[in-house]
Amino acid sequence: xxxxxxxxxxAMPLVSILIPAFNHERFVQxxxxxxxxxxxPAKELIIIDDGSTDKTADRIADWVATHCMDLPIEYxxxxxxxxxxxxxxxxxxxSGEYLxxxxxxxxxxxxxxxxxxxxxxxxxxxxxxxxxSIVVNRDGKKMHDSGMCDLHGxxxxxxxxxxxxxxxxxxxxxxxxxxxxxxxxxxDTVDRWSEGLRIEDWDLFLxxxxxxxxxxxxxxxxxxxxxxxxxxxxxxxxTRVVNLAxxxxxxxxxxxxxxxxxxxxxxxxxxxxxxxxxxxxxxxWSVALYMLAYLSLSILSKVRLPSVNHGAQAx
Length: 315
Description:
single chain; Spore Coat Polysaccharide Biosynthesis Protein SpsA, Chain A; nine-stranded mixed beta sheet; 2 domains; globular; alpha/beta; 12 helices
């Protein structure tokens, strides 16, 4: 649907805000309202309902009918294909130079788009920039000021250098919510999201970090909502095992993208994940063996000298 773009927005790079929606009827309107609330003027909104079985699609349709003249909007409703396939389709439908993937249970914070666009304009060598998030509960009440620090225990100082970002993405994954703004060209370079994965974000950010394409700004750009359907916070043991096993396969697959010492650090992380799986399965001897391998490789990564050549591309 065509919307109205102001004359002032014409001189600014277009940001495509990409919302994959699935079974978030309670939260999706807040997500969509936040797109309008952010004052950045040159933006479009692309939404795909990925086969929701609740009233999410109806909530979106009502919102689009109300706001279709406020900004350019495209809304698609179709059968379920999964998060990675939906994100890739959103990118294919987008027109913007910059892409802002979102989530239908989270929401943008005003000013975040402008801060991230400015960073990428000032750092042409970076393909994407990540910010921080606040953390809210299912009712929208703030739980934490920083998703990175309070939810994941990360040190923001790690993200202020390419070396630190690589180490942080590999061993202290602390991205709470959809906090990235990406150049379209950067996604084309790393082949977008790997379809079929449930933990698709870590896989993508590993590939971006391996290419030194990630930057960081210490600005809260979104609200990350914690509720009982978050994949990352599920307490269901079998689901956690499946998610961890997938993460370990991602680590093993992407290790060859990295130079040393990061390659060894990622291999160490694969053993750390294996130890978590064994713990959940109550295989405690395996936990001990995997932790020994993890600690050994972690120490080795600290003494290995950086490689001269970049690693080969993963397939």
